[in-house]
């Protein structure tokens, strides 16, 4: 049995007590952008329930062009007005450089990826970078309520980056 | 009080019973790629706990270049071996076309985005598209265990796309 099959078994259990459908637009009008890290349970850490906020996640929680695309759809079509950015301590993105990662892939496959890995030396600096990218985007209409945080994987607590 | 402040209050409560830190690599060696939709609680729907799987999410759950970047980091640096793709019923991405969305932004801002919105006409077709993009990527070393599903927002149940 693969892990995927185990997840499907858990899903069958979840569906037994599931009550839907809820409306498509997020009820709390928030979009969260967070790192993909396994230790960051966004619903748990923010006390969320189904139907409340959009959750966008990638390696690092960086504001990439794909995150801008997702936020544009979130704000323009589905009514979100606040953005919450979450990086975290002990992030994998602190353990390598973009050049090293792209070179390792080139050494392995013969092909250098056309994208940067988006590694960063500390999470606070990259939260500021992410806020700056949101603020600079011409495609997002709502940028007054954009706040960034670092999640501590030891304590489960969010610390705001000012 | 903003919604963000409410989420911070919920986080303080979460941290009270939080026990960490867990190891950085996902214990179950899986990366999930899912839509950002508020009704899709990935941890709940798959019975997950902190520390188990990477969760990557964007508008549509589409396999964009940024998702390939995240999966490459997930597999090459953090040991994941299975990929689970999750789209869902009643998706916002079914309600517009790429051309319409880009034109609406151009009409509003004067600037046409350089990216496609990645809208799609039905979730099953786009799950197949996403699997095909994963399989075609030269940057992902583990592509034998890639499965795609549609989450039903009415029942909470995952249906596999074959």
Explain this structure to me?
The structure is a homodimer of 162-residue chains. Chain A has 162 residues and is α/β, with parallel strands linked by helices. Chain A has five helices and five strands; from the N terminus they run H-E-H-E-H-E-H-H-E-E. Chain A has helices at 3-16, 42-45, 65-78, 98-109, 123-136, and strands at residues 30-35, 53-58, 82-88, 146-151, 158-161. A five-stranded mixed beta sheet of chain A has the order 2-1-3-4-5, covered by helices on one side. In chain A, strand 4 (146-151) and strand 5 (158-161) form a beta hairpin. The longest helix of chain A has 14 residues, at 3-16. In chain A, 48% of the residues are buried. At the A-B interface, helix 1, helix 2, strand 2, helix 3 and helix 4 of A face helix 1, helix 2, strand 2, helix 3 and helix 4 of B.
Percent of residues in beta strands of chain A: 15-25%
Number of strand elements of chain A: 5
What would the CATH topology of chain A be? Beta-carbonic Anhydrase, Chain A
Question: Could you state the CATH homologous superfamily of chain A?
Answer: Carbonic anhydrase
User: Strands across the major sheet of chain A, in which order?
Assistant: 2-1-3-4-5
Most extensive interface, chain pair and sizes: A-B, 94 and 94 residues
Q: What's the story with the biggest beta sheet of chain A?
A: 5 strands, mixed
Q: How many structural units, i.e. domains of chain A?
A: 1
Distance between the termini of chain A: 47 Å
Mean pLDDT of chain A: 97
Oligomeric grouping of the chains: homodimer
Which architecture of chain A does the CATH hierarchy give at level 2?
Answer: 3-Layer(aba) Sandwich
Question: Which bin fits the share of residues in helices of chain A?
Answer: 25-40%
Number of helical segments with 4 or more residues of chain A: 5
| Radius of gyration of chain A, CA atoms, in whole angstroms | 18 Å
Shape descriptor of chain A: globular
CATH class of chain A: Alpha Beta
- Order of helical and strand elements of chain A: HEHEHEHHEE
Judged by helices, strands and strand pairing, the structural class of chain A is alpha/beta
Low-confidence stretches of chain A: none
